[in-house]
Protein 1
Amino acid sequence: MNEPSEINRRAFLKAGLVVGAAFAVGRTSRAEVSKPVRLGIIGVGNRGMGQLRTLLLLPRAEIRAVCDLISERTTRAAQVVSERQGREPAMYSGTEEAWEKLVKREDLDAVVITTPPVWHAPMALAAMRVGKYPAVEVPAAQTLEDCWELVRTSEQTGIPCTMLENVCYFRNVMALLRMVGEGMFGELLHCEAGYQHDCRSLAFTPEGGLTWRGERATQANGNPYPTHAVGPAAQWMNINRGDRFVSLTSASTAAVGLREYAALKFGAEHSLARQRYLQGDLNTTILQTANGRTITLYYNTSSPRPYDLILRLQGTKGIYLGSTDSLSLETADKPAEKWEPFAPYQEKFEHPVWKKLAAEAVKSGGHGGAEYPMFYDFLHAVSQRTAAPQDVYDAAVWSAIVPLSCASVAKGGKLVKFPDFTRGRWQKRAPLAI
């Protein structure tokens, strides 16, 4: 499953010469730049407002424009910006095309996209084509063609594309990244992670209709939301930076949970209780890498259960399990027979990004403060004209699990090949800097 044939090798090489410098990864260790980053935000519903409030805590962020289909949301967001920054941003709303005017503004450096997923790729592509850095919510694309188009457009324009995967900025995840880099777990062999979160209520409107999440459950069957789970594991395993995914297989259970929930909420005779949902309640996807590693991903949002990302990391010298936030390491004088609390290791191996930003991040809220350093890295990358740690190849690879898992489920769990969106670059790219 390779890149579409219309993009030839010569075009790729030409683009690579043009944009090579733009794909150098920026981290907070680079020289600070005080110049503000001028932002537009598309989508200021519940998720977008949360991201907006986090951005307003960062001194470098300057919100110039806000956009939402629903005008009341745009007005509310503009008021929040005005109260914080002392001036009202431009507002765009009312039609599905309003965002196009925001993207074309000449006074923006970057665009933050927090809309339903179907809009992620079109908006990110439009931003890059007019020279603006996109920071796009997860997943960045829904189809393989859109994944390829994100890569092509970023390479051809020289504009990096960042996917806002906040779990990669969880405090424990970043400490583990440092521990892996320092060899504490030996050679990594396997990871297990999942987006396991009871989201049944988010599939329906209070009036008895389907939200975009509910509509998606009637249209496809696979893993529609893989990046929270795969992001940390991919960074631990240096995917796109020394290793890559080569194949996956995926299977889903029957689709039962949404019908039962709809019957409980709206009555057994309601149309939503009789609706045919395609998305299985629990999807299991297994990824294999070029270096002989495996990752198991779970997706389950239609069952009653506590939130759990699992985040199991197994190496030749030990194991970490996020469900209990504990680990077991083998040393010369101690076998790995008992679980230990992770807290002492968290303190000892704190990632430099969290060391620098912990006070501000913890106060910001937003998934344990993870979104503060995530946006800090993004703004820093824009100001330096470099790629953020989560670059366009990560966006494409992690998002590609959506269509590939659907393809495997449709074929009865058959193994499907994974495209190499880096076109071989993964073999020479350096791991993320700590």
Protein 2
Amino acid sequence: MLKTLSQITDLAKSKTKRRLAVAAADDKHVLEAVKKAQEEGIIEAVLVGNMENIEKIALEIDLDLSNIELHDEKNAYKASVKAVELIREGKAEILMKGLVSTGPLMKAVLDKEKGLRKGGTLSHVAFFESPYYHKLLGVTDAAMNVAPEFAEKVDIIKNAVEAFNKLGYEKPKVAVVGAVETVNLKMEATTDAAILTMMNKRGQIKGCVIDGPLALDNAVSKESAKQKKVESEVAGDVDLIVTPDIEAGNILYKSMNFIGGATTAAVIMGAQVPIVLTSRADSEKSKMMSISLAAAIG
């Protein structure tokens, strides 16, 4: 059980350095995070982007470029294509978003012939270190899948569980949450949760323990679960919260960061390699921790 994001960094340090390809790397906050990750001995960077801008930023933040592989490409989409190409050629093992919109980057990733598809659904998983919870808390999916169909929810859970398993969790506790902790036929989130729970019990979703539907309060609070008479191995000790759609996931993600005082690390799972896809609003620490997470599970 991990309690802090620094434990993920320690895990990444214990492994062989990973090569990180940054698409459109001419972004100050991204390069600051890359610099820190290099100083921690976690990654070796490969920067693809506008070299004139990269060199200016490097001077500002005292980033030594002499031992970094550099590829000059001023067009952000072409930089994304080049970064993906480097990974396909075995010259890098993690992809990171720089100064490029998510759409063009994902277009390069999802290209049927030259991308990084594995065949299933790509999804976002975040790990939060919160002052109000007793261990790291995962949330999926806050950034990729808008209104996932049932089969996509299965993939989303499998992707997140894979990340947990690679961090050393044998069977992470997964709560499929909704507005209530009982099955209501008028609330699709609750019926989906019940089916996902049964699939897990019958071995159709492995490597975790799933329970649902659970409301958020009884997923994270043993006292709430006790008051509502929810008997569950997951309730009050959840590792991963699965939200019904991107609106619920994104609101929870931002509430924890901007109101709840949490720090986060996040990656995109389901491609051939982990993808560090941070928001412009994410802190430098969050970006650095996301690199650590990708290196730890890559």
